[in-house]
Amino acid sequence: MSGKKQIQVDVEKAVGFKYPVDKVEYNRRDLLIYAAGLNLTDLKFTYELDKGFSAFPTYPLVLPLRGKGHDVNSYAERSKMDNVPGMPAIDLNRLVHGEQYFELLAPLPAEGEFDLESTLVGVFDAGKGMIMDRETIMKDRAGKPLAKMISSAFVIGYGGFGGPRKPKGENVVDTPTTQPDAVDETKTTANQALIYRLSGDYNPLHADPRFGKKLGMKGAFLHGLCTFGISAAAVLRHFGNNDPAAFKSIYGRFASPVYPGETLQTLMWKVAEKDGVTTIAFTTKAKERDLVVISSGTIELNKSKESKL
């Protein structure tokens, strides 16, 4: 008797699992490298002696893979998902980054040591695959929460186990069909992924073209979180006066890969304003192919002294 092997998943056992606390650190040099990886040019993000020097708000997204220390690390070792109760062993070659939510809870310091406390908050059956939602809270060593991250991984071929379907998230807004209120274009460089990976994501797919070609790609492609950060920077420039204090949260779905050298075109719509928070919908495209690479994008911005919302 032949046929596809049935995936065994016990959702009740898996959801709520707490991963070991991850000790991480960063310094000003790390913030400068991240800013370079996003093609930022404002001195407050790119020059440590600027009087307003700040971490770009989405920087914590690199920490779960970066870990502690400043040398390169093993992507496979940092990404493994073993020993989760009720879950099968996950083949990392079948795992893709599907969605990302990030919320800034307090201003980021320019350097320090921090704890990442992660919980598996959702396991969903998507038919052709399985969705795993992992929530990570970044805290300083005094226990103060600084950021919340929810990463959704789609595991190809692991669906059909009879689990729940994922509902539409509360952070998702419908993208308008009208003309955008603003459009931003950022030309990525041929070595964009090689610069961005220095922030801590050393997945070979973003450096060695042979890996990408094995998966049917043209070669190495850009990190989704690099495109995500460039999109956040575009919205902050156009609607937040480039003030990091205006940033509240961002959500997006990774729809297609971007190849280094392509132009990222971010289309933005102001869709709501309530209780001092402005909601911006955005879609990011690879301009040369007119292809959506981030869909259902949503950013929330707070009013601040610098902001002209």
TrEMBL record:
A Pfam short name: MFE-2_hydrat-2_N
A GO molecular-function annotation: (3S)-3-hydroxyacyl-CoA dehydrogenase (NAD+) activity
SUPFAM superfamilies membership: Thioesterase/thiol ester dehydrase-isomerase
Domain called MaoC-like: residue spans: 175-287
Residue span, Peroxisomal multifunctional enzyme type 2-like N-terminal domain: 25-157
Cellular component GO terms held in the UniProt record: peroxisome
GO biological processes: fatty acid beta-oxidation
Gene3D superfamilies, per database record: Hotdog Thioesterase
Name the record gives this protein: Uncharacterized protein
Source species taxonomy: Eukaryota, Fungi, Fungi incertae sedis, Chytridiomycota, Chytridiomycota incertae sedis
